[in-house]
Design a protein that fits this description.
Chain lengths: 301, 411
């Protein structure tokens, strides 16, 4: 009897897993599998043609001691992230606040703001190449109207990274929707109560809105940091890392090592370092979240 | 009953198809062409099928993703039998050496005599022929005659020098703020760019491919880069970030260096009567790099003899003539038949071809070229970009830096 019960119990426990089996298999074959494999080949000198040879930590040592492009590309990426992340979050929140106003044609604006996210990165890059064009670009034309001679956006090492940031700020849709969802969740009574107490709109924003959307802020912050560190498409298409390697992102460094120089082992080692950097940053943000993220259900000690 | 009959017919058809399949040999052939030029490759393959009954050539047009797809093919040990190739240093270990086929094939000797000497250098590493050239282009200077007329500047003449080019460029750019005498890309392909090094009497690497110091940063190299930098700064040359050919077609650029590629569209947009073509100017010598399209055989191919037949057919006058729409014919007989050796629009390419045998590109001298060239490109780009943006440029220091950064690959 007991045995039979155990069998039924086992069956019951297995069934849910069977249902999610396609996903689990996909995850194992297409994510975990390659992940482990790339860890293995990161310890090899693995050319695309010819025999792989085991080099131990050779790839990692070379990266940190000999390869200047490693530090250079990492520096560019960090610089990009430092400018990009706050701007991106700020603009997304700003747009969400605007969309949260009760005005006519709200759903129209929502659609319009989401549109850029629908366009593929490749098409977007092509458009931005034109927008940034030194002579014929829209931006420099608009600047010329107010008497400013626009910079050579994509051709000047001083401006190219800024141009990348501006172009990257375009695809706002998803973040805005997440912020908007969080804003809608805030009960109206809080605002009403605070208004009766005489709080002005700035106070309402800092004392009510901001604390209550911190969970969304946390999520968006982590996603934005990850996106910033993985930035590749725009640079690959718009500048190919140039001019003078001023937009040579870390992801491009990995890509070039793998698919231009065909050093799969070295590129895998690069990718793992990137993975650890992103992991560390995400963990730091998570750890710090107990200090600034507020969940309604939790009771602060 | 009817159904049974139908079934029998099906079985018969499939059976026959099965038989047919056993008799045909399939040869996989990969090319980087797409659209119009891919069509040309398909026609040549079709012609080969006609001449060799029972052979099917599977033409695989990889287009822009060529390098990645070929790499994946070799990595998975599933490379095409025959393929176009330019990146010999990377793939040399996986490519069949063709010397023995060439030597043992009597009929090939006449063809070798018809081939322009020097082109074969560009697909040979360590005396091993890895690819058979089927088309080529050398580099020339295109010029816009109407701009020359407007500025009252004499057309360039054969044997001209870089100083002549600069003088003309200065005079031509006086036509207007937007007009430039010469234009070049601020981010050139390092492979193509080496011809200027040769022209000034130096090269990227030493002849054995092991030394970079004293070559890439030699005084001659510095002088050459300084010339380009000065031309940008004085406004006689445009350091173009995007297509130089587009700028030329726009009518604001009087002179441009390039291979055969933009010829057709240049004729379309500025007219054949306004288009002049002349050999590259010289400093110490006039030198052009050769971009050859060569066919290679995979070492792992299971149909090597058939693959060799196919390569041989591609090098034959018939196929080379069909290919003449894509780049220039590598055979003397075909070039003469098409009048290319006397046509003023094509002759300079053949003149420049004669300079080809004198040099071996650094590309074929060092197996680490792809990494070294990244450093070289960075240096070249930095000189040009800083010049365009009006920054102070210390050419020698920039070239020195590339040399010291490449040292790790030259060990």
């Amino acid at each position: 009897m007991a045995k039979k019960l155990g069998k039924i119990k086992l069956k019951k426990e297995i069934i849910p897993y069977l249902f999610i089996m396609p996903w689990i298999l996909g995850f194992l074959i297409f994510t975990i599998g390659p992940l482990i494999f790339s860890l293995i080949i990161s310890f090899f000198d693995w050319p695309i043609v010819g025999q792989p040879t085991f080099v131990g930590f050779g790839n990692y040592i070379r990266m940190f001691t000999k390869d200047k492009m490693f530090t250079h590309s990492l520096f560019i990426t960090v610089k990009f992230a430092i400018i990009f992340v706050p701007l991106y979050m700020g603009i997304a929140l700003g747009l969400a606040l605007l969309l949260n106003q009760k005005i006519k044609g709200q759903s129209f604006f929502k659609t319009v703001f989401y549109l850029p996210s629908v366009i593929s990165g490749v098409a977007l890059s092509m458009i931005w190449i034109w927008i940034f064009d030194f002579k014929y670009g829209v931006i420099n034309y608009l600047l010329s109207l107010i008497g400013i001679a626009g910079p050579n956006w994509l051709g000047d090492p001083k401006w190219s990274l800024i141009a990348m940031v501006i172009a990257s700020l375009w695809g706002q849709g998803t973040m805005v929707l997440i912020f908007l969802g969080a804003l809608r969740e805030i009960p109206k009574d809080y605002y009403e109560a605070s208004m009766i107490d005489g709080a002005n709109s700035l106070q309402r924003f800092y004392k009510i809105t901001l604390p209550l959307i911190t969970p969304a802020l946390l999520f968006n912050l982590i996603m934005t940091i990850i996106a910033a560190f993985q930035q590749l498409t725009l640079a690959l298409l718009m500048t190919k890392g140039g001019p003078s390697n001023s937009t040579y992102f870390y992801a491009m460094y990995v890509y070039n090592n793998a698919f231009k120089h065909f050093e799969m082992g070295y590129a895998s080692a690069n990718a793992w370092i990137m993975f650890f950097i992103i992991l560390t940053l995400s963990l730091l943000v998570f750890k710090s979240s107990s200090l600034w993220v507020y969940y309604e259900s939790e009771v602060k000690k | 009953m009817k159904k049974l009959g139908l079934l029998l017919v099906f079985i018969l058809i499939f059976g026959l198809m099965g038989c047919a399949k056993e008799d045909t040999k399939t040869l996989r052939f990969a090319t980087w062409d797409s659209e119009d030029t891919l069509e040309v490759q398909k026609q040549i393959a079709k012609r080969f099928e006609e001449l060799n009954p029972g052979v099917k050539v599977q033409v695989e047009g990889y287009g822009d993703g060529y390098d990645q797809k070929i790499a994946a093919g070799f990595g998975a040990k599933n490379a095409p039998d025959v393929m176009y190739m330019w990146d010999f240093p990377t793939y040399q270990a996986s490519l069949e050496t063709l010397n023995s086929y060439m030597d043992s094939d009597e009929s090939f000797k006449t063809l070798m005599n018809d081939l322009y000497p020097g082109i074969l250098n560009y697909s040979t590493m360590d005396d091993k022929v890895l690819g058979m050239p089927v088309g080529y282009t050398s580099h020339v200077v295109y010029y816009n005659k109407s701009l020359f007329d407007k500025a009252g500047v004499a057309y360039p003449e054969e044997g001209w020098t870089w100083d002549d080019l600069r003088e003309k460029a200065i005079a031509l750019s006086a036509l207007g703020d937007d007009v430039y005498g010469f234009a070049f890309s601020t981010s050139p392909d390092p492979y193509d760019f080496e011809q200027y090094y040769w022209s000034f009497g130096t090269s990227y690497l030493s002849n054995d491919g092991k030394m970079m110091d004293g070559y890439f940063n030699s005084p001659e190299a510095v002088a050459m880069m300084q010339m380009f930098s000065d031309m940008v700064k004085e406004g006689s040359a445009l350091g173009a970030q995007d297509s130089v050919s587009n700028a030329f077609r726009g009518g604001n650029v009087a002179m441009q260096e390039s291979g055969i590629w933009p010829l057709e569209r240049h004729i379309e947009s500025i007219g054949a009567e306004n288009l002049g073509i002349i050999a590259l100017p010289k400093a110490k010598e006039a030198s052009s790099v050769i971009n050859s399209s060569a066919l290679c055989m995979a070492k792992d191919s299971k149909n090597k003899d058939l693959a060799w037949e196919f390569i041989k057919f591609y090098t034959s006058p018939e196929a080379v003539k069909m290919r003449a729409k894509i780049d220039l014919p590598v055979l003397k007989s075909v070039s003469e038949e098409l009048n290319y050796t006397s046509d003023p629009l094509y002759k300079p390419f053949y003149d420049m071809l004669e300079t080809a045998a004198a040099h071996t590109p650094a590309f074929l001298l060092n197996s680490q070229y792809s990494k070294i060239s990244e450093k070289m490109l960075y240096a070249i780009e930095k000189v040009f970009v800083d010049s365009v943006n009006g920054e102070p440029v210390d050419v020698k220091a920039i070239l020195d830096e590339a040399v010291s950064e490449s040292a790790q690959f030259l060990e």
